[in-house]
Design a protein that fits this description.
heterodimer; A: 319 residues; alpha+beta; T-fold; 2 domains; three-stranded antiparallel sheet; 29% helix; B: 112 residues; mainly alpha; signal (chain B)
């Protein structure tokens, strides 16, 4: 097996390819360049990125975008549709207002930035965020996008998941592949010997402790949590998962949600939506989708899980 | 001139004489052939020589039965031989070997 680790999109990226072919190792060396290209198009932290240029043209008509931005935006809007707007790409202004206006590594956890110049003021933020994304216009013939005035897009975790999936697709020809983008994981299929990929689920309350061992043979596994990307703003402890219904970081009894799904993009969207909904509504929403398997970790009390969860996990044999 | 009725009676008599002669010849021929046949081969009765059956056939030894696990094996003796002690088969226990827990290749957690 060949392996590569590097930093991109504000996260640690791990790539595994089960192959002895020298061509696989050569392909592996190209992965950081792929991620750099995608980040140049999709990052909200790069003023010159294609995404930020689109944001700057909000309210000023049609903008032709690249196939990469078109495809990622299309997936993000599908996620918005699937989650009834709970996971939407239109919350950048709220993220900035909450204090998350730069790469997390640059963010002072104790004293967040008051907001960069040029960002809309609070009273300009739409109160209809749960459906705001529906106002985005797209022309597939010209691959053009028109954003309404005041809208700012952030593709965030969705872009990272998309990138991981693209890397898996490109490397799968060389052998069984796994790409871990900051804890969101995509696989090409089973391992070379037909066995599943064993992936630990970290306990957000005790990072060195494992809650479960998932055996993944297809699709993706994602965790959404408010345990890491968080900071203080005055007396408040804020985090990066915005509830579009309030425009503020979600108040939830859930600390993290891990979801296994047929694709990494679906896993990410489902994990975030369930965390925003909270344990009771989140579990019910997940249970209604049998292709998903999820583990929900509460700040207090034991984790809860969907009925489909045990089927994707390693089971300790009874003695 | 001769009368026709008398001529018919003489013809029929000649026919009868010819038929009788033919029949006699046939029967005579059959008798001759019979007297020339090869006598039938008949095995002479032979007295069967049967030796006395061996004693073990008359009194066969008991068939060794499977010994219960842990019991003392019985000696099985065939007449004319030394007794053979059959060692019991080792006790078999069903052992379930649980597969080893695989080591994780990576960990999922909220975005790092």
């Amino acid at each position: 097996m060949v392996q590569l680790t590097f930093r991109a999109m504000g996260s640690t990226i791990l790539v595994l390819v089960e192959s002895a072919d020298p061509a696989a190792e050569q392909a592996l060396r190209q992965v950081p360049a792929w991620f750099a290209t995608w980040e140049d198009a999709l990052s909200r932290f790069q003023v010159a990125s294609e995404l930020m240029q689109l944001n700057q043209r909000a309210g000023r008509g049609w903008v032709t975008v690249s196939p990469v931005l078109w495809e990622v935006l299309d997936g993000a809007l599908e996620a918005a549709q699937a989650t009834n707007g709970l996971v939407a790409p239109t919350l950048l202004a709220h993220l900035v207002e909450a204090g998350y206006d730069r790469d997390f590594a640059s963010l002072s956890v104790e004293r967040p930035s008051p907001g960069a110049n040029g960002w809309p003021q609070k009273d300009q933020l739409s109160a209809q965020n749960i459906a705001f994304w529906r106002l985005i216009e797209r022309n597939p013939t010209t691959r053009a996008v028109a954003l309404p005035a005041g809208m700012l897009l952030d593709l965030g975790g969705f872009a990272k998941g998309w990138a991981a999936t693209q890397a898996v697709r490109r490397l799968a020809d060389y052998g069984a592949t796994l790409v871990d983008a900051g804890g969101d994981i995509a696989v090409s299929g089973p391992r070379r010997d037909g066995s599943p990929w064993p992936i630990a689920v970290a306990d957000p309350r005790q990072p060195d402790h494992e809650l479960a061992l998932v055996l993944l043979t297809k699709g993706g596994l994602a965790t959404s949590g408010r345990d890491y990307r968080r900071w203080r703003k005055g007396a408040d402890l804020l985090h990066h998962i915005i509830d579009p219904r309030t425009g503020k970081p979600a108040t939830s009894d859930l600390l993290s949600v891990t979801v296994a799904a047929p694709t990494l993009e679906k896993a990410e969207a489902a994990a975030k939506a369930a965390l925003i909904l909270g344990s009771e509504a989140g579990l019910a929403w997940l249970e209604a989708q049998p292709e998903l398997a999820a583990l929900l970790v509460l700040e207090e009390n034991q984790p809860i899980q969907t009925t489909t969860w045990t089927a994707v996990c390693w089971k300790e044999s009874a003695s | 001139m001769k009368k026709p009725k008398a001529q018919g009676q003489r013809t029929q008599g000649v026919k009868l004489m010819i038929s009788a002669a033919a029949l006699a010849a046939t029967l005579g021929g059959w008798a001759t052939l019979s007297s020339q046949a090869t006598p039938e081969m008949v095995a002479a009765p032979v007295a069967a020589v049967v030796s006395a059956p061996p004693a073990w056939l008359l009194n066969p030894p008991p068939i060794p039965t499977l010994q219960a696990i842990g019991t003392t094996p019985a000696a099985v003796q065939v007449p004319g031989t030394q007794p053979v002690v059959v060692a019991p088969a080792p006790a078999l226990r069903e052992v379930v070997v649980a597969p080893a827990r695989p080591a994780p290749v990576t960990t999922t957690q909220s975005s790092r």
